[in-house]
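Hey, resending since the last one bounced:
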Amino acid sequence: MNPSWLEPRQWFEALQGLESLERLFDAGGSVLVMIALVAAVLFSLALERWWYFRVTHQRERRALVNYWAARRDHVSWSALTLRDVWSRALSRRLRRPLPWLKLLVGICPLLGLLGTVTGMIAVFDSLSLNEVNQARAMADGVARATLPTLAGMAVAVVGLLFTTRLEHIIRREDQKLQDRMARAVEETHA
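The structure tokens again:
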């Protein structure tokens, strides 16, 4: 029995979409599947970071500012060192997946290049072995060469945009944390 929110025509269209995806993976070869897996991990990490920033980091920052404001000593060397250590620990938790994100962004164009090379090898193989149906074999090889390149570059560009935005947010959050800690101390002494 179909769920009430999907009509049979919509199910049929969804199945056709899956067939299109299957044809895309057939045309792109195994390298395109690897790029899809890397993209899934990359976007999962990005989604996790977005969730962490929106929910957990805001709460931890508020708790740290309140804890700092509740202290009696704000000016001694040990207090300032402790504040610096706490701030760095909070920032480090926000930065934690950044090296992995950068690695995955760097891998995507290389996988695309691998797809190009394997596709060109398939083209030359088919040209040397099969003289009867050269146009079809050549078209398959060119598709196998260009689709992974396109997919790898597209995933890398989106991942690079996210990584750059995350670095900007981390710098802004560091500054915001320092400002709020200083303001909390001023309000406590006022």
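The longest helix spans residues 134-189.

Sorry for the duplicate.
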